[in-house]
Write a structure and sequence with these properties.
CATH class of chain A: Alpha Beta
Structural class of chain B: alpha/beta
Radius of gyration of chain B: 23 Å
Number of domains of chain B: 2
Largest interface: A-B, 22 and 26 residues
Largest sheet of chain B: 7 strands, mixed
Number of helices of chain B: 22
Strand content of chain B: 15-25%
Structural class of chain A: alpha/beta
Helix content of chain A: 40-55%
Helix content of chain B: 25-40%
Shape of chain A: globular
Strand order of the largest sheet of chain B: 3-6-21-16-18-19-20
Distance between the termini of chain B: 13 Å
Distance between the termini of chain A: 36 Å
CATH topology of chain A: Rossmann fold
Oligomer: heterodimer
CATH superfamily of chain A: HAD superfamily/HAD-like
């Protein structure tokens, strides 16, 4: 049976990893703690911006350090609110249809995201996806340490996790599909037989055109530059 | 009626200063043909000028062997003096139906379906014929208190028309009032948007657009560009989905079409008619069909439709200028030039009412414009493949569509017997460039580069590959929300060439810029027309040669 692997941020939803994190930081037990957490996050912002340009995995580590000290109970308690307030409304028009069509064709649908696993589980239920490969926070005594469990789901690691998942579930990768918006996911897109660029950034769009991968726009129109690229023979 | 190769010519493609072809025919055959030929069938003699033809978006001249026939298009039928009056007359005096106004009541739901951008080719200079009809029909609906009106572009599994294209077809006023909530493209893959209407006696499933099915009245506005369009095809194909199309868009049915352009001899048409009758029984449908003449080129390019022997000095200068310009500018510029020049087609007929009564009239009008009688089949058919097809409006004519144009359309422009004999040769001119518009023809790339290298057998494709493509979620998403053709479409395009493929012995392409695309298509490649003729004479010595001087459209009415 084929499987369809979906990147999430920018592919199925218009938010990114930062939005749920801000929600959590803004909803600490006391306003002072919220203020402190936000201030620390702002202080880390330049490093995160730099890391985003250089190494996606490093960016994830810096971002999730903001969760340090938040209890597991609180994270799970607020998870439904984060989903309803941040993620649900950010799902692209057509994203659910696409996932449902994959399911109708008998595919396993796996969300492969750098976002936190418990949030992705809620999104998976909403979209009708069957499984989640997401980042997991490390906890000690019921509190987040600010570190991620290994492996960190980002960049080339996604490709390895997809391969591993397919091997464990009996999927022939040649028959599988993968969807992403980002050039950083080219490794994941390259391991399946049917890669597809969704709302691609310019680097991914160029690559998709070179290899004649399908290009899909969910919930948004191509940028002017992307439109121009599409017209050039 | 024989043409003999007396000695091998140096070159029969006329570049600057090339000599007239050395191919000579027997005089008796010339005389016999000349006495019987229609004035639009020109027999090449030693003094004949070279013939001009399209090779994609460029022009070429060739010297045909003496004795070859060239079939020219009929002159354009005069357009109606007052098309609006003709439309009103047709609506008020329909064939086999009550007048449109008698079918209306306040509060009813009306859906108006219109043909998509695949007709006419190139798009018509504004106002498009559909805009004229819609303007009058919408006014009539408003006058009768009908407010619940939706307009659907009947794309079937063609690509969605862009807003700009829809605006061109329906005009600014209607576009502003209805787009996008009440004027939109049909979506054959919307799970909630399709409804089963019934099944024919042959088991063909009739599944149509739900809005159309659930309306109180469906008005279909068709622009009949070729005889195979319109009639039952309007509703039962234009508003259907993949499930229904499979019934007739398959190699088995395509092999039984002699030709697509002659509904009485086409299994495709027979199947479509059966399905259409099921739709007619279940729905309340009012058909409006229009015919246009073949005035594809404006006066400045009118020489392209004329017998080259009759070209004036001005015509020849215009040809040389155009040809030189096209050969010097990049492909994108050539495409842009052709895309931006709409054609001055004129409306020649408007008919309304019951489907079959209406369609009989439009077919007769289409034949009056396109049919040219010819006696006897040929061994070799020569055609230029132009830059446009129904499936590449505002896009590049990719290799699969070149195949469709050659073995699908050009081969099928006949009534009676095929222009070329069974096992004969077709010589086509096209660069066959390995290029695709990836927005419109995404799934075509995989078809050409993954399916064709494995098999050219349409039956095997149909059995082993078609459904996999047709259910590909990524391609389907591009069809539903982008402007891509449905992923089953490249298969249908291959099947479209099936009748030609089964009939022809070989296809030789002249002017291809690569070896592998012709090979993938199952064609041979010749460096020039002379070589192509010599290759063709391997199959049949002293071949009889006929050239179809398209565009604009010609149908050869062939008596064997």
């Amino acid at each position: 049976m084929p499987a369809s692997f979906f990147d999430v941020d920018g592919t199925l939803v218009r938010t990114n990893l930062v939005h749920p994190t801000l929600f959590y930081l803004a909803n600490q037990p006391t306003p002072w703690r919220s203020f402190g957490s936000m201030a620390r996050a702002v202080a880390r912002a330049p490093r995160m911006a730099l890391a985003e340009m250089i190494d996606r995995r490093r960016f994830n580590e810096l971002l999730f350090a903001a969760y340090e000290g938040i209890s597991r109970d609180r994270l799970l308690l607020l998870a439904d609110e984060v989903f309803d307030g941040v993620l649900r409304s950010a799902v692209f028009t057509g994203a659910r249809d696409l996932v449902q069509r994959c399911r109708a064709e008998g595919h396993d649908v796996v969300l492969v995201s750098g976002a936190l696993d418990f949030l992705m589980a809620r999104l998976a239920r909403h979209l009708g996806a069957t499984a989640v490969i997401g980042n997991r926070l490390e906890f000690r005594d019921g509190y987040a340490t600010g570190k991620l469990e290994r492996p960190i789901v980002a960049g080339p690691e996604k490709a390895r996790l997809v391969r591993q998942w397919a091997a464990a579930n009996g999927n022939d990768l040649a028959d599988c599909f993968a969807y992403s918006d980002s050039y950083s996911d080219v490794p994941m897109l390259s391991v399946v037989g049917h890669p597809c660029a969704v709302n691609p950034d310019l680097r991914l769009l160029k690559l998709a055109r070179t290899y004649a991968w399908p290009v899909v726009y969910l919930g948004k129109r191509p940028s002017a530059m992307a439109g121009l690229l599409e017209r050039i023979p | 009626m024989t043409t003999s190769l007396s000695r091998p010519p140096d070159s029969s493609e006329r570049g600057a200063g090339d000599s007239q072809s050395a191919l000579v025919s027997s005089e008796s055959s010339d005389r016999s043909r000349a006495t019987r030929a229609h004035p639009l069938v020109v027999t090449i003699d030693p003094k004949s000028a070279p013939r001009a033809l399209f090779s994609g978006d460029e022009l070429r001249e060739i010297d045909l062997p003496v004795g070859s026939r060239v079939i020219y298009p009929r002159p354009p039928i005069d357009a109606l003096n007052d098309a609006d009056a003709a439309i009103r007359y047709a609506l008020n005096h329909p064939l086999g139906s009550d007048p449109l106004h008698a079918k209306l009541w306040p509060g009813m739901k009306v859906v108006i379906a219109i043909d998509d951008v695949s007709v006419p080719l190139p798009p018509m200079r504004g106002p498009d014929a559909r805009e004229r009809v819609l303007t009058i029909v919408l006014q009539m609906l408003a006058d009768h208190g009908v407010e619940d009106v939706e307009l659907i572009v009947a794309t079937s599994i063609h690509r969605r028309m862009t807003a700009r294209e829809v605006r061109h077809v329906v005009g600014d006023r209607i576009f502003k009032a209805y787009w996008p909530d009440r004027l939109y493209n049909h979506d054959a893959e919307d799970p909630k948007g399709m409804k089963l209407v019934g099944t024919t006696s042959e088991g063909e499933v009739v599944e149509l657009n739900r809005k159309a099915v659930e309306s109180d009245l469906l008005i279909y506005v068709a622009l009949n560009f070729v005889p195979m369009s319109g009639g039952h095809k309007s509703v039962s194909v234009g508003l259907c989905g993949y499930r229904s199309l499979r019934a007739h868009h398959n190699p088995r049915v395509m092999r039984e079409c002699w030709s697509y352009m002659d509904p009485s001899a086409s299994a495709l048409s027979t199947s479509v008619d059966r399905m259409g009758r099921v739709a007619e029984r279940a729905l309340n449908i009012f058909h409006i069909e229009m015919t246009v003449n073949n005035r594809m080129f404006d006066r400045a390019l009118g020489f392209l439709t004329k017998n080259e022997d009759d070209w004036s000095t001005f015509d020849r200068a215009a040809y040389r200028t155009l040809s030189a310009t096209l050969s010097r500018v990049p492909q994108a510029a050539r495409q842009a030039v052709f895309e931006r020049v709409p054609s001055p087609y004129g409306i020649t007929g408007v008919f309304a009412g019951e489907c079959e009564a209406v369609h009989a009239q439009t077919i007769a009008r289409a034949y009056a414009q396109y049919l040219v009688p010819i006696h006897g089949q040929a061994d070799v058919l020569v055609c230029g493949v132009p830059y446009i097809s129904p499936y590449n409006v505002n896009a590049f004519l990719n290799p699969l569509l070149v195949q469709v144009m050659a073995q699908g359309y050009l081969f099928n422009f006949y009534r009676g017997a095929p222009i070329v004999r069974k096992g004969g040769t077709m010589i086509v001119f096209h660069p066959c460039t390995d290029q695709f518009d990836q927005s419109q023809h995404a799934s075509y790339v995989e078809f050409v580069h993954d399916v064709l290298p494995r098999t050219r057998d349409a039956m095997v494709m149909h059995r082993d590959f078609e459904e996999k493509f047709a259910s590909n979620p990524a391609y389907l998403e591009m069809y539903r929300r982008g402007n891509a053709y449905h992923p089953a479409h490249p298969f249908f395009m291959w099947y479209w060439g099936e009748a030609g493929r089964q009939h022809l012995g070989r296809v030789i392409v002249v002017g291809a810029d690569n070896d592998y695309i012709p090979k993938l298509l199952g064609w041979e490649r010749a460096r020039n027309f002379t070589e192509a003729l010599l290759m063709a004479s391997d199959t049949k010595r002293n071949p009889e040669i006929t050239m179809l001087h398209v565009p604009p459209i010609i149908m050869a009415d062939v008596t064997a």
